[in-house]
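Q:
Got a chain?
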Amino acid sequence: RLLVLVALSLSFAISVSMFRATYQQQQRVDAELTLGADLKAIPDTAQDASAIAAVSAAGAGAVTPFAQKVVYVGAEAQDLLAIDPRTLPSVSPLGDGFFQGSTASAAMTALRQTPDGVLVSSETATDYSIVPGDHLKIRVPDATGARREVTFQMVGVALEFPTAPKDAFLVANLDYVAQQVGDPRISFVLARTGGGADTATVTTRLGDAWRVQGIETVTARLANTITSVDLGALVSIDILFALLIASVGAAMFVLAGVADRARELA
């Protein structure tokens, strides 16, 4: 019975450790999906895609420009994510499960090969009964804020996408959108930290002209919205409790053996 107790307590400690590891891994995945990458650099003044050179020079690894606009599909407002499909896969987390009936590689290839291509959310595809190959007219704001009607060709359905909201959104080519509305400005630059430069280092090198958000801040914010306790400290307490139970069980096993063989030992 004592050996069973020890085994159960050790199993409990192992299971708690595995839970912590998988929880932290999923927490980082969620943070990357929310932020878009390891790091997001937002310029204080309007910048075009050439601004990515400044972020790269500040010590970031792979970088990609990103423009986010509020557009209208019919009477419905949606977020349009204008991206560079050539550089985004090396920066942002893209899983095959993000795309319906396709893979991440195939979806990015479709955008690269179709300048006016657009990925729509499943909600939009269902609401407007559109399939790949159909054309979609979207009212996109230009530099003055006036909306221009731009024609896109649907190339696929995206269930999720970095920085995208959970409901209706669109993903298109940054160059095509900029050309059609005459507005080359970007909203932010996404980057992978590398070369020994962390978020703090990149922030310092970019200076006051940029606002930098790191994956650590987003992870902490998401953790606070999920639970009000420190999971790491809680796991440490659980493991300590399991080790205590195992130690007590082992001590009782030894003492019971000594008591059972007291005459032999004497």
Summary: The first strand starts at residue 39 and ends at 43. The chain has nine helices and twelve strands. The radius of gyration is 26 Å.
